[in-house]
Amino acid sequence: MKNNIRRSALILAVAAGTLALSACQNLSSPTVRFDRQVNYGDAKAVELVTNEFGSTDLQMIAEKMTGGLLETGIFQGRPTVTISTVKNKTSEYIDTT
Q1: pLDDT tens digits for 3-12?
Q2: Distance of CA 76 to CAs 60, 81, 82, Å?
Q3: Could you give the CA distance from residue 55 to residue 60 in angstroms, rounded to a whole number?
């Protein structure tokens, strides 16, 4: 009985070792290239229509808010600074720390 258990354990160990070593086999060597250039897209380019909130939406909102503030004439007098905490009232996670 002990002999059968040892034999089964040995077969299991050899099978596990063979599986582990075969998983490490490299069929093709990875290619590392350093000649690629990074190209940045145009911030004002219109993105494809999606149901997600994108950078074009942020750009458009910022331009409308800034234009609206400048048109009101609020910034005619002395500059005023107001400091307060940011509250995230959306369902999206935004790090406000």
Answers
A1: 788 888 889 8
A2: 24, 14, 17
A3: 9
